[in-house]
Specification:
single chain; alpha/beta; Spore Coat Polysaccharide Biosynthesis Protein SpsA, Chain A; 7-stranded mixed β-sheet; 38% helix; globular
């Protein structure tokens, strides 16, 4: 079974344009993310799924420089873009992550891949009931499921959010929600890169941890933020955009008895 991490990435952003290439400890945010993803031993490929828009040629150049795969597809139809990337690299299992998660934890991703491989489920993720901060999001599922969805759905939200159809239909797919370890729950913290305040938080985390240990993990971040409430407050007022498909998990939570 060939496993690939697909990172949905583009230069356009309404609240923070060009955010994925913003400098952090002297490197673009996306490069730091790729550094972390390449540590996931269970993944055979790291692939950046970007768009055919000319401004995203920068991302293509960076992917080549960083030694990771790259696929270009529709800017609006993200579902077809992810499916196209999976087909190009012959993936059996997709690990879906967006590029606004530059603090993604390789150990968490590895654990979820192993859990998926060892379980009779269609979908493993930590977004149905959140215990990790937003920005530690990981979703694992079979390529064949996404192929079927891509071939049948005409729903605009499904096309924009590739895995939406899976967790909106818990009666159809076997779902498993993963949790942070006891004592490390921080669901209200934003570690996603979407606003200038988010950028300041993520940059500060890297500046505090990266020089001492380039392979720092979520527990290190949790420890830092617990000791530094001043950092946590910087983006605590930010409202998360909630279009259908980004945080539309209520039905799945109820179905799985997680409310």
């Amino acid at each position: 079974m060939k496993v690939g991490i697909i990172v949905e990435s583009r230069m356009a952003s309404t609240r923070l344009p060009g955010k994925i290439l913003l400098p952090i400890v002297g490197k673009p945010a996306l490069e730091l993310m790729v550094e972390r993803l390449k540590q996931v031993k269970e993944a055979h490929e790291v692939i950046i799924a970007t768009t055919e828009n000319e401004r995203d040629l920068t991302i293509v150049d960076f992917a080549s420089r960083w030694g990771v795969g790259c696929f270009r597809g529709s800017e609006e139809d993200v579902l077809s873009r992810v499916v196209g990337a999976a087909r190009k690299y012959n993936l059996d299992i997709i690990v879906e992550i967006t590029s606004d998660c530059p603090l993604a934890d390789p150990d968490i991703i590895s654990e979820y891949i192993r859990t998926f491989m060892a379980s009779d489920v269609d979908y493993v993720a930590n977004i149905i009931k959140r215990t990790h901060p937003r920005g530690m999001d990981v979703q694992v599922f079979k390529t064949s499921i996404l192929n079927d969805i891509e071939a049948t759905t005409k729903d605009a939200a499904d096309r924009e959010h590739p895995s939406l159809h899976i967790y909106e239909h818990p009666e159809k797919y076997k779902l498993m929600n993963m949790f942070a370890e006891p004592g490390y729950h921080m669901p209200d913290q934003r570690l996603t890169l979407d606003t200038p305040q988010d950028y300041f938080v993520i940059r500060t985390v890297y500046e505090e941890l990266y020089p001492k240990n380039r392979n720092f993990r979520y527990k290190d971040i949790y420890s830092l933020l617990t000791k530094r409430p001043d950092i946590r407050k910087i983006n605590s007022h930010i409202d998360q955009k909630r279009p259908r498909g980004y945080d539309h998990t209520e039905r799945a939570r109820k179905y799985l008895g997680l409310d």
